Amino acid sequence: MGGTISLLASGGNSYNWSGPGGYTRIGNSVLRTGATTAMSGTYTVTVTGSGGCKATASVVVTVTACKNGEDAIAFETLFAYPNPTNNQTTITFTALKAEQMYLSVFAVDGREVAVLFDGMTGEETPYEFVFDATELPSGTYYAMLRRADGTTQQIKLMVVR
Asked: Which parts of 51-151 are beta strand (E)?
């Protein structure tokens, strides 16, 4: 048995989660104990507000096997809210160790439209960046977090007008 996956959403009246392997949950939080590699993947929450407006956010969780055979959560979480957006969205990640990282946003055609972070992270440090999409046309974009070893994590961002 591994660690715990714990996710929390706020700001709405109802919450519907989906995740790897057909995982679903109603409520503002996800708590999965005994994390295994099969629980790795994208967790998505749809938040519904009091007026019926909906917003969706996703986070990628990767559980990797430790040397002792147990599984442990071992990758940064990348998250954007609100998503979709019509002007600005906040993109966050938490670095687990001090290392060189690069966070940028790409259009669906592969064109880089913004660089949000390019530097050394601190161990166990959360980072938060406001991405201004007011000048971009409606469409699909991707926030990509790249580590010095070349591994990447990405989430889809939707800009709607």
From this structure: 54-61, 63-65, 71-73, 78-81, 88-95, 100-107, 112-120, 125-132, 139-147
Q: Which amino acid type is present at position 4?
A: T
37-46 residues labelled b (16+ CB within 10 A) or e (exposed): eebbbebbbe
Distance CA 113, CA 123 (A): 28
Average pLDDT over every residue of 4-28: 88
Report pLDDT digits (tens) over 45-61.
999 988 888 888 888 88
Q: Based on the number of CB atoms within 10 Å of its own CB, is 128 exposed (0-12), middle (13-18) or buried (19 or more)?
A: exposed
Kind and range of the H or E run holding 154: strand 152-159
Best CA proximity match to 143, nearest among 88, 85, 78: 78
